[in-house]
From TrEMBL:
This is Extracellular solute-binding protein. It comes from the Bacteria. CDD domains: MbnE-like. It comes from Paraburkholderia agricolaris. InterPro entries: Peptide/Ni-bd, SBP_5, SBP_5_dom. Keywords: Signal. Residues 146-541 form the Solute-binding protein family domain. Gene3D superfamilies: Dipeptide-binding Protein, Domain 3, Periplasmic binding protein-like II.
Length: 664
């Protein structure tokens, strides 16, 4: 199992932050790990489209406003005006063929085409329908190039950004994309009819002003270097989506199988019973020759087949039912992704390096439960997790322990706090653990000279300090209540997580703690997460190369009380809130790094998550005949990379399932 970069795709600024919460169907990290932040497809969208994150350009510091083709959060965009294509695509890739993919997440069925509402499960691949004003590149940490917009104008005071819409831009119904449509998209996403996270994500946008049919200005509450990128990455859809022939409108939160009217390169072709969906490339797609689109979207059709579980999914791949599979389970890669077709070369396995930050994946402790509100208890639970044993026995030593919320990046806190970090931490010294002002904590180690026994003895001492003692065959508090909790997961990941959870439960039993593994249907599981009705669960928080407002959604106090928010931990900390405010207001890269390091220190010393593991490669198995660009992106999600930038050197014949009905 690995964390992989599971999502992401179309403008990452938004897809990686916004859609990060849309339907929460989980990223394709580890089939057994839910990425609360973005449904796999959306995350891949972020990664593939602008995996490097959006950039807000050093333009904010410019003495006068001026329109440009691209912006960068810090410094200058890599690609100059007039560039022909991104370096990591093949501009000569042949077009054609049908790519068939399996579930990109734990979702096993879908019941809507609207990915922006909270209820229901969106179909995989919908990110291919929606575009935004800008799109990022996958070989820069933060950059945004015009997509629907052909120039960008950031006001000298940084309090507004104006976009001019490319007059060529068209929706799938042939209508031009107008400023009114962009404003309608923002207003709808901020309304109660959309998932509540959007109101938080776009909360700093005061309003959108239609200047003329092709010009729109976004005004901000305050200067924030991320905001031009955030609004640039907002998905845009037509005002006519949901409009009935008589002029009446279906409520946005009631849209289900009404096909979206958007401007992307693909259209929904057909679908069957919420288990199969086919997209076809729009022959009239307006943006095919744009530099940011050259070499991408090479398949005539992309089909998603949703399988009921991981076993069926793997066997279907071996049987040739779909074309490419991203493997997130180490033991599968070594022991199960084998057979005659692999031996003959009909199926190929290959590992591709990636430079994504790891994000945080681990057992989330719900602070809303009194059981987990003492940091000594949380630290004790961390000490009982034996990663080294799991890596040897189950993972074939393919993983590295996560030791930071920003691991594998320069944003990970190391050593002692810098003066800039201390300036953020000192005002809260009285309320923070003194250890925060020292080195970051090291994760427990059981390799010699360390041992699980030594770790458990330390855990027992911490639990005793917190008022938990062993008596009457259980660990109990002063009121005699036993230490018991539930580890929640969904049925699609049960097979992968069972041996891991079982090992952890055995270690907890040695402390007198009773943990039970509860598995439920994915829909029930997701509902419980949305309402924060759980003790502990495994989740992956997608990586970001440039932290921004999504951190407020994950760790801000206000989000802790918002059902369905990304603050699944339930964290409410004035110190964290202050650091988050400094992070999103950072005007220089140094200020951003200091704020991120300070945030990392506070989060790691809080022991809110029992960190798991990550891999620095994407493991992909695929059919012979598929090809990819010689130059790899730096920051990308595997599934989105395949659907967006691969091609068939030998196009495959089209074989589509016959839909039983499109009436749902």
């Amino acid at each position: 199992m690995t964390t992989g970069s599971r999502w992401v795709q179309t403008p990452r600024a938004l897809w990686c932050r916004v859609i990060h919460r849309l339907s929460r169907v989980g990223l394709p990290v580890v089939p057994q790990v839910v990425s609360r932040v973005v449904p796999h497809t959306w995350r891949e969208a972020c990664a593939a489209a602008l995996c490097g994150g959006f950039v807000l350009a050093g333009l904010l510091a410019a003495p006068a406003a001026h329109a440009v083709y691209a912006i960068a959060q810090y410094g200058e965009p890599k690609y100059p005006a007039g560039f022909k294509h991104f370096d990591y695509v093949n501009p000569d890739a042949p077009k054609g063929g049908t790519l068939v993919m399996a579930n990109p997440s734990r979702l096993t069925s879908f019941d809507k085409f609207n990915p922006f509402t909270l209820r229901g499960n969106p179909a995989p691949g919908l990110e291919m329908l929606f575009e935004s004003l800008t799109i990022g590149s996958s070989d820069e940490v933060a950059s945004a190039y015009g997509l629907l917009a052909d120039d960008i104008n950031i006001a000298p005071d940084g309090l507004s950004t104006t976009f001019h819409i490319n007059p060529r831009a068209r929706f799938s119904n042939g209508d031009p994309v107008t400023a009114d449509d962009v404003k309608f998209s923002l207003d709808t996403l901020k309304s109660p009819q959309a998932a509540p996270q959007f109101a938080s994500i776009f909360g700093e946008i005061t309003r959108a002003v239609v200047v003329d049919p092709h010009t729109i200005r976004f005004e901000f509450h305050q200067r924030n270097r991320e905001l031009p990128l955030l609004v640039g990455s907002m998905p845009v859809f037509s005002r006519k989506w949901g409009m009935k022939p008589d002029g009446s409108r279906i409520a946005f939160d009631q849209l289900a199988f009404e096909k979206p009217i958007a401007s992307g390169p693909y259209l929904i072709d057909q679908y069957d019973n919420g288990r199969t969906i086919t997209y076809r490339r729009d022959p009239n797609y307006w943006g095919a020759t744009l530099p940011v689109r050259v070499g991408t979207n090479n398949f005539d059709r992309i089909v998603y087949k949703l399988y009921s579980d991981n076993v069926a999914r793997l066997e279907a791949f071996k049987a040739g039912e779909y074309d490419a599979m991203v493997e997130y389970i180490a033991r599968n890669w070594v022991r199960r992704d084998v057979g005659k077709k692999f031996d003959s070369g009909e199926l190929i396995k290959r590992e591709f390096p990636q430079h994504n930050g790891t994000g945080m994946q681990g057992f989330i402790l719900n602070l809303r439960r009194p059981l987990f509100q003492d940091v000594r208890v949380r630290k004790a639970l961390d000490l009982a997790f034996d990663f080294q044993w799991l890596n040897r026995q189950l993972f074939f030593n393919q993983y590295t322990r996560i030791d930071s919320f920003f691991a594998n990046t320069d944003l990970q806190a190391k050593g002692l706090p810098s003066p800039g970090e201390l300036a953020l931490l000192d005002p809260w010294r009285a309320k923070l653990d003194p250890a925060v002002f020292g080195p970051p904590p090291k994760q427990p180690d059981t390799d010699p000279p360390g041992s699980l026994r030594a770790n458990l003895l330390q855990a027992r001492a911490l639990l005793q300090q917190a008022g938990w003692t062993y008596r009457d065959n259980a660990l109990r508090n002063a009121q005699g209540q036993p230490f018991e909790f539930e580890i929640l997961d969904d049925s699609s990941s049960e097979a992968a997580m069972s041996p891991i959870v079982a090992t952890y439960i055995r270690n907890l039993q040695k402390l007198g703690i009773k943990a039970t593994f509860r598995v439920s249907d994915f829909a029930v599981y997701q509902k419980r997460l949305d309402s924060f009705d759980f003790d502990t669960t495994t989740i992956r928080m997608p990586d970001v190369q440039v932290p921004g407002s999504e951190q407020i959604e994950r760790y801000g106090s206000k989000a802790a009380d918002t059902p369905g928010s990304d603050n699944i931990i339930g964290l409410k900390s004035p110190a964290v809130d202050a650091i988050l405010k400094a992070l999103v207001r950072a005007q220089t890269l140094e200020q951003l790094v200091d704020a991120t390091h300070a945030l990392d220190r506070v989060l790691m010393h809080g022991y809110y998550v029992i960190p798991q593991w990550y891999s620095a490669t994407h493991r992909i198995a695929f059919k012979r005949g598929l090809a990819w660009p010689k130059t790899l992106p730096l920051y990308y999600g595997a599934e989105g990379w395949i659907t967006t930038m691969w091609w068939y050197a030998q196009p495959q014949p089209l074989q589509l399932p016959q839909p039983q009905s499109e009436a749902h």
